[in-house]
Amino acid sequence: MTPFIRIQNISKKFGKLLAVDDVSFNLERGELFSLLGPSGCGKTTLLRMLAGFEKPSEGYIEIDGQDMANVDPADRPVNIMFQSYALFPHMSVSNNIAYGLKRASLPSDEIKARVEELLRLVHLSGMGARKPSTLSGGQRQRVALARALARRPKLLLLDEPLAALDKKLRSETQFELVNIQEQLGTTFIVVTHDQEEAMTLSTRIGVMDDGKLVQTATPNEIYERPETRFVADFVGDISFLEATVIQRAGKYWLMEAATLIHATGSSTLTSGMKVSLAIRPEKITLTSQPTGQLNEFPVEIEDWAFYGAGTQYKVIGPDGIKLKVYQSHNQPSQANSRQLETGFVHFSPDATLILEG
Amino acid sequence: MRSTVPLLVKLLAIAGFGIIYIPVMMMMIYSFNRGKLVSVWAGFSTKWYKELWYDDVLLTALYKSLLIGFSSATISTIFGLLIAIAFVRFAHFRGRLFLSLVASAPLVMPEAVTGLSMLLLFIAMEASFGWPSGRGVDTIMIAHATFGMCFAAVVIQTRLRDMDKSLEEAARDLGGRQPFVFLSIILPLILPSIIAAWLLSFTLSFDDLVIASFVSGPGSSTLPIVIFSKIRLGVSPEINAIATLMILTISALVMIGSFLVLRRDGKK
Amino acid sequence: MHSFLQKFGRLLVIWLPLGWLGIFFMLPLVEMVNVSLSEARRAVPPYNPAFQIGKDGISFQPVVDNYLLIYEYWEDYLWPAVNSVRLAFFSTLYCLLFAYPMAWWIARSNKSLQHILLVLILMPFWTSSLLRMYALIGLLNPNGVINDFLIWAGITVTPIQMMQTDFSIYSGMILTYLPLMILPLYASLVRLDNSVLEAAADLGAKNWDIFRTIILPLSMPGVIAGCLLVFIPAVGEFVIPALLGGPEQLMLGKVIWTEFFRNRDWPVAAAIAIILIAIIILPIVYARYQDKESIS
């Protein structure tokens, strides 16, 4: 079965600058896909090509079997919710939402009904006569969403939809967004630089760096099994260790990184190889006394930061190894490490990742 | 902003630019025409420019225009600065409405009306207290300064309003007081707009025909007055020559002025 | 907090220009009303002021003869008044027609190009309108550049009459006032957020729709400002009808000039000037009202 949305070998050049470099991925109908990456990675350019505002230098975009080459933005079954919302300042909320429907020449009572329906969907019933300048940021965002959904697009593009909202509003809106998407079954592509947002919202994430699509996977896979150093570092916190492979030790590998480490690895490893080991902070345990577990060594506690539900520690191990340790506060067995100056860390070999790039 | 501009729009835009520039370009070209007939090209020559040099009436008028221009522009700029300060920096004051009316009306009032009314005032004043005695350079200068200061005020006001206030606040935080802060911090910051205002007032004065015609007297003909009477007699390459010179000079001044105003913070 | 020097300085800043403009702008208008109510006579000056402060004290003898004269010969005066409004109105329209695409193009260009284009627009504006009209004569004359070309190219045999027509007036007006129309249009068009236009396109609007439903309404303040900026002075224009117009293009500015310099009838000239002010007072008030709106 052909995928609902096919993006194949898309590239975009601006003069000498290669903004999007041979990106390919497919989407099934009803997915909520996030394009995640730092600013300048090309995700917004890719979005604009999907909307039709930029022409790909190379490659092929197909939506529900229809080739999008040379199709105007106005004629595509795609709608976009802009980062700045781009509401028409001289029109009321209702007229903003109705704009796309009027362009489709729908009969006016149908338009009226649909606008009401959409206002209800985004919890703005009764606000139809208001002007955008009288609305709060969160309300304007919902109008922008309603407007973009009005024409029942096959694909909805959202450019940093939550960026302008404050933190509390952001988490509430995240859930609402997912609800609406599941309710309507519309395929969403969200562009964001906020990895938390991507993880919360998406069914799948595509991580972009410097124009390239580096890894496409579910949020869980991206977090637990990042394929490159960039992905591991960009999504969530992580500590890196440079180690040299010594030999196999049972189901694990023995490595040297100022101290002996047991790590998970594959059969492609050879003795003497230099690798980057990565461990997530919550997978490292910090104790005041040694516990005798594998991969334990003494550390100095350099700094810590309080996060409400937990504390993040910066520790320095033998030979200057720097690790980030996250300790949640509901584990009474751990010492109140904020009082300590030195301690011990240990982590399971299963928690290690070997990454290149 | 890379949106495409439709072809029709581009064509109309270019036509517009053409309308503005082509007549003047043609006139400047023909100022170098050897022949007397303005429309028949008889070869390149600068003889009309040479003839200008010997035209005493023209040269006297030029001198008068420059004199009036310099003096009225200076007055305009000073008063325009005062008006700008009043509007931007003083929140409320008695007479604010009146000042805003009286400082903006000259911008749109037809020149014939301002010219005639000022002349009538000068006559009434002469009849009542003996000054000004007759019309001449001084009356023209007063008239030009009057409408010039309104234009100067507009130019300076925009700049004054958009100025970065934090510099002034820093000065005051460090112990500076008015008017010292104004002179040492604000004035230098808005200097480009002050210079632009001066140049603007100068060109407006230098180019003015109608108002000068009404308020001038015998022996105080300005350059535009002389040129106008020459034009009345018909088109002549000599006029093309003086016109070209005037336009080039004014354009140079305007370019300097605009450059100064637009350059400072890269944004208008 | 405010020292005496500061208070005094503040008063100076306000009252120096206020005084000057009061004396040299307002007072002349008052005097003009005065003269319009004065009797003409053979003397210097050629009128007996209605209100005068003379050696024998103050006297006030207003006379409405001038207005009556205008009323009596209303065709000679009403017609140029209507004509002035007509010519100014259409000049404004034509200016708008050319200015809008130009302002749009400039607003859509990149920053450095914008600066250059704006300077290009401003430059002719500050050169004497007298000289620019003169240049236009050279172009439009029966033996001018355009006719020479047309005859040389064989398009016509006899020169086309372009001078002293409505066409020459409109050409002169456009040449003179185009920059004034462009600037406020540019100011409002440049504020247009590009993403708003893209949103409209994304929602199915084609170019003409986008213009009609988004661009035009949002640029309306600029359109109105530009039209007022052109119409108001255009009504009272002198140089353009004087140099380019014929008897059919008589405008009030020229009538005032003629009454004053040729007929030496200063009171009537003053009365016509008052009428001219009356014509433009409404647009001026409307413009001020708009200004206040946009500032608030």
Question: What topology does this entry show?
Answer:
The complex is a heterotrimer of chains A (357), B (268) and C (296).
Chain A: E1 5-14, E2 17-27, E3 32-36, H1 43-51, E4 58-63, E5 66-67, E6 78-81, H2 93-103, H3 108-121, H4 137-149, E7 155-159, H5 167-184, E8 187-192, H6 195-201, E9 204-209, E10 212-217, H7 219-224, H8 229-234, E11 239-249, E12 252-256, E13 260-263, E14 274-279, E15 284-287, E16 296-306, E17 310-316, E18 322-328, E19 342-347, E20 353-355
Parallel strand pairs in A: 3-8, 3-9, 6-7, 7-8
Antiparallel strand pairs in A: 1-2, 1-4, 4-5, 9-10, 11-12, 11-14, 12-13, 14-20, 15-19, 16-17, 16-19, 17-18
Chain B: H1 7-30, H2 47-54, H3 56-89, H4 96-108, H5 111-129, H6 137-162, H7 165-173, H8 180-207, H9 210-215, H10 223-233, H11 237-263
Chain C: H1 4-36, E1 39-40, E2 47-48, E3 51-54, E4 57-60, H2 65-72, H3 74-108, H4 111-126, H5 129-140, H6 145-152, H7 166-189, H8 194-202, H9 207-235, H10 239-244, H11 252-262, H12 266-295
Antiparallel strand pairs in C: 1-2, 3-4
Please describe what this structure looks like.
The complex is a heterotrimer of chains A (357), B (268) and C (296). By secondary structure, chain A is of the alpha+beta class. Chain A has eight helices and 20 strands. In chain A, strand 12 and strand 13 form a beta hairpin. In chain A, helix 2 packs across helix 3. The longest helix of chain A is centred in the middle third of the chain and has 18 residues. In chain A, 37% of the residues are buried. Chain B has 268 residues and is mainly α. The longest helix of chain B has 34 residues. The mean pLDDT of chain B is 83. Chain C is mainly α. Chain C is built from twelve helices and four strands. Chains in contact: A-C, B-C. The interface between B and C is large, with 97 and 104 residues.
